[in-house]
Design a protein that fits this description.
344 residues, alpha+beta, six-stranded mixed beta sheet, 10 helices, binds adenosine-5'-diphosphate, binds magnesium ion, nucleotide-binding, thiamine-phosphate kinase activity, PurM-like_N, magnesium, ThiL-like
Length: 344
């Protein structure tokens, strides 16, 4: 034992750890079309349709802070982030299970508030809450949600499907959730220092909303379906744009070029980043938890999506040998770096 090597998780990182663990598994069933490695697993139902399954864990003190996150919003978010992973496969969510671990700090009314948010999200995304588990916890609140959805087999968008010259698209705007978190943390510290200070969050309503009540972009999935566009690859932006682009490049064995002046950022996000002394573009590239969709389309589909008000064309897929680059506003080409969202 004494000579056994101890490796810190921070040395390999979250993705390194998942890679290391997943190497031990090979799939036994032909019905397992995709196991570990995408936004959701894909299971063949045998009649040209597939089921997708995804799960996410939210831990108090790591993913949320109840001193500024209302329980109802938290319930909504727990469902939305899972629906977002179903959306990222170009599938339609149908069922969720919800498991919770509670310490005695929580009253029945508090759990009911959490579930009111879960109910609202279930209604909003048209999913059935079909089960779960409830247990005690010694360290605050833990919420684990599993979501299931369906799609036609040929309509699934994997991270591995991007092709040379495909156009890189992203929905909505980015960086807002990170800036919202910075504001909420700042106001919490102000409040802790002087409880008589009332936080003035009105001015920051958009960014704090992005952090506290994210939306899964099912609206986009339904619209793509109506327009007959199947993304060649897709994922949701949970860890940050740069990190997600790295996943596409790794799994599709390609490179990417994106343009700084095409990156979507909301005015309040921009102004607040500047106020906080942060570089807005760094926030757009590395901010997590926006839950927008990042996808690639074939050139032929550009005309169909061109006029869409909420889809932005930020770059294109290049050969793997050309690496991952960002063309700045001044035309300088720099290497794209993925800092991502570090849990460890
Ligand atoms: P996302 O950010 O889209 O939720 P993750 O980065 O959490 O995706 O996970 C990437 C992939 O790794 C997914 O396929 C997920 O199911 C898998 N995964 C994550 N943690 C584990 C684990 N502890 N054991 C097995 N698979 C895991
Ligand atoms: Mg995802």
């Amino acid at each position: 034992m004494e000579n056994q090597k101890r490796t810190e998780i921070s040395e390999v990182g979250e993705f390194g750890l998942i890679d290391r663990l997943s190497q031990q598994f090979t799939n036994r069933h032909a019905s397992t079309l995709k196991g570990i490695g995408d936004d959701a697993a894909v299971i063949d139902l045998g009649d040209g349709t597939v089921q997708v399954v995804t799960t996410d864990l939210l831990i108090e003190g790591v993913h949320f802070d109840l001193s500024y996150c209302p329980l109802q919003h938290l319930g909504f978010k727990a469902i939305a982030v899972n629906v977002s992973d179903v959306a990222a496969m170009n599938a339609i969510p149908q069922q969720v299970t919800v498991s919770i671990a509670l310490s005695n700090r929580f009253s029945v009314e508090a759990v009911e508030a959490l579930y009111e948010g879960i109910r609202m999200a279930a209604e909003h995304y048209a999913v059935d809450v079909i089960g779960g588990d409830t247990t005690a916890s010694r360290s605050g609140l833990v919420i684990s949600v599993t979501a299931m959805g369906v799609a036609k087999k040929e309509e699934i968008s994997y991270r591995s499907g991007a092709q040379l010259n495909d156009i890189v698209c992203v929905t909505g705007d980015l960086g807002g959730a990170l800036i919202g978190l910075q504001i909420l943390e700042r106001e919490k510290q102000v409040y802790l220092a002087d409880p008589n200070m009332k936080p003035d969050l009105e001015k920051y309503a958009y960014v704090t909303g992005r952090q506290l009540r994210p939306q899964a972009r099912m609206d986009i999935i339904h619209e793509l379906k109506e327009m007959g566009v199947v993304p060649t690859s897709m994922l949701d932006v949970s860890d940050g744009l740069a990190s997600e682009l790295f996943h596409i490049c790794k799994q599709s064995a390609c490179g990417v070029t994106i343009y700084e002046d095409k990156l979507p950022i909301d005015k309040q996000t921009f102004d607040t980043a500047v106020e906080l002394g942060l570089d807005p573009i760094t926030c757009v590239l590395n901010g997590g938890e926006d839950y927008e969709l990042l996808f690639t389309i074939q050139q032929k589909d550009f005309k169909t999506l061109e006029k869409h008000p909420d889809i932005h064309f930020i770059g294109h897929i290049s050969p793997a040998s050309e690496g991952k680059s960002l063309v700045t506003k001044s035309g300088t080409v720099v290497n794209l770096k993925a800092q991502g969202w570090k849990h460890f």
